[in-house]
Amino acid sequence: MKKKALATMLVVSMAAAGLAGCGGGGTETTAAPTEAAAAEDDATEAAAEDDAEEAAAPAADGELIRVGIINNDPNESGYRTANDADLKAMFTEENGYDASFAYSLKNDEQITAAQKFIQDEVDYLLLSAADTSGWDSVLQDAQDAGIGVILFDRTIDASEDLYLASIVSDMDKEGETAVNWLADQGLDEYNIIHIQGVMGSAAQQGRTGALDAKVAAEDNWNLVTQQTAEWNSEKAQQIVQSVIDAGTEFNVIYAENDDMAKGAVAALDKANISHGVGKDVIIMGFDCNKWALEELLAQNWNYDGQCNPFQASYIDEVIKKVESGEEITEKTIILEEKGFDATTITEEDVEKYGI
């Protein structure tokens, strides 16, 4: 299977710059790979079982496809929980896979996990990178070993020749959509608390870029503070509390995920500062957790940018194409996403898009 993945080298489309993914955080744990079922003694049962396994497995020879999956901590956020659950539901023995998982937000720990998967001779390495840089040598090692690499959730700064496909959100677009929405609010002055995610992550870079550009271009856009809370609610609360304690005026909180927006709101509530539609402070988050969209529906928040965590089916499709010898003509797969406004969101939106 690995030789087939390596041999199917790709006619590709150009990837859009600045593509990324959502959420972040966590420590590393690794799950042991599943074991293939023992062969049945009875010849008739064995034949039936082989037929069922061959039908389920993407591999042409009916063997389980071994995948090593590197992701962030599934407990970090609602987005990451949904993303991890989606992967685990897809990459099962029933679907023809033997999957192992490793979790970390630290690039060096993820690289160590990738090297271990390469040594274990997996067929595919699925990667949601903690940082955009530092992956060239690992991906080259994977390619030399005949292992196909598929990026999901987050892109990296590496040659497209080193991976099969990239299944990601357009984080530049997410940032631009959010900032354009904010500009449309027509405030006389924008005094913004900007709470960033983990610095250097693709999600942080995408969600920061559009806001930085707007602040640089407009005289009435000001950053009261710009700090990282590393996707963490409590750290975000501390950042906002420090601004409140300093007596600095602000009217916008631009938080790069829902959990940090939640922490920011906790500081506002503690200080009896109103927030939401028609109130003192505009609240903006990202990821579209269901509870966050419910805050929009109640008009306690103002805006939430969608980040789609359901990527496993796209990955499975890429693997099936490679296993069947098809060409991968679409190198970068951009997930469809939108932004939600508290004045127009509906209960149907909450049920359909909330994660």
List the SSEs and their pairings:
Layout: H1 2-7, E1 30-31, H2 43-56, E2 65-71, H3 78-90, E3 97-103, H4 107-119, E4 124-127, H5 136-144, E5 148-153, E6 165-168, H6 171-183, E7 190-196, H7 202-217, E8 221-228, H8 233-246, E9 252-255, H9 258-270, E10 282-287, H10 290-297, E11 303-306, H11 312-323, E12 332-334, E13 339-341, H12 347-353
Parallel strand pairs: 2-3, 2-4, 4-5, 5-6, 6-12, 7-8, 7-9, 9-10, 10-11
Antiparallel strand pairs: 1-3, 11-13
Helix pairs in contact: 6-7, 8-9, 10-12
Point out poorly predicted stretches. 3-21, 24-58
Structural class: alpha/beta
CATH topology of the largest domain: Rossmann fold
How helical, in percent, are the residues?
25-40%
What's the overall geometry? elongated
CATH superfamily of the largest domain: Response regulator
Short description:
Helices cover 39% and strands 18% of the residues. The chain is α/β, with parallel strands linked by helices and 355 residues long.
Comma- or semicolon-separated keywords:
Rossmann fold, alpha/beta, single chain, elongated
What does this structure look like?
With 355 residues, the protein is α/β, with parallel strands linked by helices. It has two domains: 184 residues, Rossmann fold, CATH 3.40.50; 149 residues, 3-Layer(aba) Sandwich (Rossmann fold), CATH 3.40.50. Helices cover 39% and strands 18% of the residues. The protein is built from twelve helices and 13 strands. The strands form two sheets. It has a seven-stranded mixed β-sheet, sandwiched between helices. Strands 8-7-9-10-11-13 form a six-stranded mixed β-sheet, with helices on both faces. Helix 7 links the parallel strand 7 and strand 8. The longest helix is centred in the middle third of the chain and has 16 residues.
